[in-house]
Design a protein that fits this description.
By secondary structure, this protein is mostly helical. It has one domain. It is 47% helix and 9% strand. It contains 3 helices and 4 strands. A two-stranded antiparallel ribbon has the order 1-2. The longest helix has 17 residues. It is globular and about 40 Å long. The mean pLDDT is 86.
Length: 85
C-alpha cells in the first residue's frame, strides 16, 4: 500500500478500531484486519453512540458503521487529489 496522507489516516482509523474492539476478523480492501460490525457497534455504544437511537429516522450507530464500511472497502490504488499536495 502506498502511504499517502489519506491512506495514513485510514490506517490510523483501522488501528484505533481494532485496538478499541480487540477484534480484527474482517478483511479490508488491502487485506488488512478490521473489526466486525458487532464489535464496532459495541465500541460505538461504549463511546456514547447508542445503537437504535434515532434522529427521525436516522440510526447514528448504523450510520457510522456504514461510513466505516466505505472507508474499509475503498480502493487504495487510486490517487486522491488531496494526496497530491
Amino acid at each position: 500500500m502506498i502511504l499517502t496522507p489519506t491512506n495514513k489516516v485510514r490506517e490510523e482509523i483501522r488501528e484505533a478500531l481494532v485496538g478499541g474492539t480487540g477484534c480484527g476478523i474482517q478483511d479490508g480492501q488491502d487485506e488488512s484486519n478490521w473489526p466486525c460490525g458487532t464489535c464496532t457497534l459495541d465500541l460505538l455504544e461504549r463511546l456514547g453512540v447508542e445503537e437504535g437511537e434515532h434522529n427521525d429516522p436516522v440510526d447514528r450507530a448504523n450510520e457510522v458503521w456504514r461510513a466505516i464500511l466505505q472507508i474499509r472497502d475503498k480502493d487504495l490504488t487510486t490517487k486522491e487529489k488531496s494526496d497530491e499536495r
